[in-house]
Design goal:
Elements lengths: L7 H12 L6 H8 L3 H21 L5 E9 L13 E9 L2 E4 L2 E4 L3 E7 L5 E2 L2 E2 L1 H11 L5 E4 L2 H6 L3 H16 L7 H14 L6 H22 L1
Parallel strand pairs: 1-8
Antiparallel strand pairs: 1-2, 2-5, 3-4, 6-7
Helix pairs in contact: 1-8, 2-3, 3-7, 3-8
Length: 224
């Protein structure tokens, strides 16, 4: 929000809209708060970046299951096409999670959807090197990580429905998303899922996240 010519009232409206599971795209937002498409896109991108930074700081604890899925795969296709984007969909069954070297209580579940590179895969399966990278970047040191095969992933009562819900949301709200900014949208979806049962409303948490990032940037700027 620092240096923005957009009023705080409009920022507040955007935060409320992003906190709802339907969310909003830049075209819709431009009409709702009476700004240009460029301004609407910039506001949404800044908030999604704050969400992604929050998620990067939070590692999965406890028992973690995950599997590979391909976003954009045509129906009844059994071989990968160039338009598909491989993803790692995971869930931690945890009671305590670590953030900034402190423990904080959680309801017991935390989900992540992360993009994969071709180097993470062997064919359509997660390579050992890819699994190692994911576990090192997203799991606590004491967490137990398990990678499901394709059949196990589709039978999983949480992971597969979670992915299908995220896929449906992206396709309906944004008519699909290309590769460049796709990760921010998966992070936005997971943010709402992870905090929907929190003691505080999702909109309050999101506002705190945005202001927290501003405070950190302010301190770094004045410390240099």
């Amino acid at each position: 929000m620092e240096g923005s010519r957009t009023s705080l009232a409009k920022w507040h409206t955007v935060i409320e809209l992003l906190s709802d599971k339907k969310s909003v795209n830049a075209v819709q937002l431009a009409l709702l708060i009476q700004v240009t498409y460029k301004t609407a896109w910039s506001i949404l991108h800044k908030i999604r970046r704050a969400i992604s930074e929050l998620d990067e700081d939070r590692r999965l604890a406890g028992y973690v299951t995950g599997g590979v899925v391909f976003y954009g795969r045509p129906q009844f296709a059994y071989y990968r096409t160039e338009r598909e984007h491989p993803l790692w969909v995971s869930c931690a069954q945890e009671r305590e999670v670590r953030r900034d070297n402190n423990f904080e209580r959680d309801s017991g579940l935390y989900v992540k959807i992360k993009r994969l590179t071709d180097h993470d895969l062997i064919g359509q399966k997660l390579a050992h090197s890819g699994e190692t990278r994911l576990f090192e970047e997203h799991l606590e040191g004491q967490a137990v990580g398990v990678t499901l095969n394709r059949a196990e992933f589709r039978r999983n009562p949480l992971l597969f429905p979670l992915y299908k819900e995220a896929e449906k949301w992206i396709n309906q709200t944004f008519r699909g998303i290309g590769g460049k900014y796709q990760q921010a949208y998966w992070d936005e979806f997971c943010f709402r899922v992870n905090y929907m049962h929190h003691v505080h409303p999702v909109s309050h948490i999101l506002a705190s996240v945005c202001m927290g990032n501003f405070e950190q940037a302010y301190r770094r700027k004045h410390a240099s």
